[in-house]
Amino acid sequence: MSTLFKLLNTSEYCLCINDMLKDKKTKFLNKQSYFVDENEIYWNVIFEPLLDVNGEIEEILILIIDVTNEIKSNIIMEKALKSQGEFLVNISHELKTPLNVIFATAQLFNMYCESGSLDDKKDSIVKYIDSIKQNSYRLSKIINNIVDLSKIEAGFYKLNLSNNNIVDVVEEIVMSVTTFTDSKDLNIIFDTDIEEKIIACDSEKIERIVLNLISNAIKFSDKGDEILVAINDKNEFVEISVKDNGVGIEPEYLDMIFDRFKQVDKSLSRNAEGTGIGLSLVKSIVELHGGSINVESEFGKGSKFTVIIPSEKILHENNIYSSKVKNGNENIKVELSDVYSS
């Protein structure tokens, strides 16, 4: 008991005792924080006066209640609520931006219709239609990510597993974006240490994983930079990595890179739009495959994301779903929508 009292703030403790002696009423010291063996603990201290028949204080009962778990749970909840609040602000911006573009373009079309100048503005109208499509893709990506994260959290998100050559799956994805990376003056390279590796995976979800990682690499790369997508066979598992030599990630952000409601770097957010939920979704899909994902990064020199998937096969494939990626071109436009323009 003496050890506990040594940890109490003497002046605060004495003040509380004096108030109790004066008022002859119960006094409290709530949420007192102390460090014991380098561990932070929280106490509620109750000072209860025990009165005699004449109403005078005969004894003082002091109760010390450990409320560490309760307080720490509240702190975690407050942080989560704050993160969700930041996420809602960010997602509101992300939804408003393409909607504003679409709305402004619709107003412009209306003006052309009223002035009878549609024929004269054909070239401009084609560009505006492309802008509407691009921003519609962007909205689709945001909504898809939110819906899918909700499905994962609720346990309704399912994989359609089939045995696929993961080398072909990833190579086709990389080849499908080369035209776009060329237009951005970026060099994307595919490398593998094995020609064939049959594993059980959902090829559509693998496409989403790889496209999301490529999208991030493009987003934070400059003209002339290189993006390397590689596959390495590790016998019991396969490594799929996406490496860039772009801006990189500061060390303090690495621990939160896959958090659901966090964007990697707010200082970069307005130059590289995003909701901050893409990597969280990628992590969840990888984990549904029984795998894991990690990141290595050096600020100013680039980042490397590595996806690890078990080298397992299934006996009974779901033949309802094709092992080939469906609507590949549309998927690319959706997943790369936040870097497609400019």
Separation of the first and last Cα atoms: 68 Å
Side-by-side strand order of the widest sheet: 5-7-8-10-9
Q: Helices and strands, in N-to-C order?
A: HHEEEHHEHHEEHEEHHHEEHH
In percent, how much strand structure appears in the residues? Answer: 15-25%
In the CATH hierarchy, what is the superfamily of the largest domain? Answer: Histidine kinase-like ATPase, C-terminal domain
Secondary-structure arrangement, i.e. CATH architecture of the largest domain: 2-Layer Sandwich
Query: How many DSSP E strands?
Result: 10
The tally of helices reads 12
Summing up helix and strand content along with how strands pair, one would put the structural category as alpha+beta
As residue ranges, the low-confidence spans are 265-273, 319-326
Enter the CATH topology name of the largest domain.
Heat Shock Protein 90
Largest sheet: 5 strands, mixed
| Tally of domains | 3
Nearest-angstrom radius of gyration? 29 Å
* Average residue pLDDT: 82
Helix fraction bin? 40-55%
Shape: elongated
Tell me briefly what this model is.
It comes from Clostridium tagluense. With 342 residues, the protein is α+β, with helices and mostly antiparallel strands. It contains 12 helices and 10 strands.
Features:
Heat Shock Protein 90, five-stranded mixed sheet, ATP-binding, transferase, HATPase_dom, 342 residues, elongated, alpha+beta, 3 domains, Helix Hairpins, 12 helices, three-stranded antiparallel sheet, 10 strands
Could you walk me through the main structural features you see in this protein, from its secondary elements to its overall organization?
This protein is an alpha+beta fold and 342 residues long. It has three domains: 65 residues, no CATH class; 74 residues, Signal transduction histidine kinase, dimerisation/phosphotransfer (DHp) domain (Helix Hairpins, Orthogonal Bundle); 179 residues, Histidine kinase-like ATPase, C-terminal domain (Heat Shock Protein 90, 2-Layer Sandwich), CATH 3.30.565.10. The chain has twelve helices and ten strands. The strands form three sheets. Strands 5-7-8-10-9 form a five-stranded mixed sheet. Strands 1-2-3 form a three-stranded antiparallel sheet, sandwiched between helices. The chain is elongated and about 100 Å long. The termini are far apart. About 5% of the residues have low confidence.
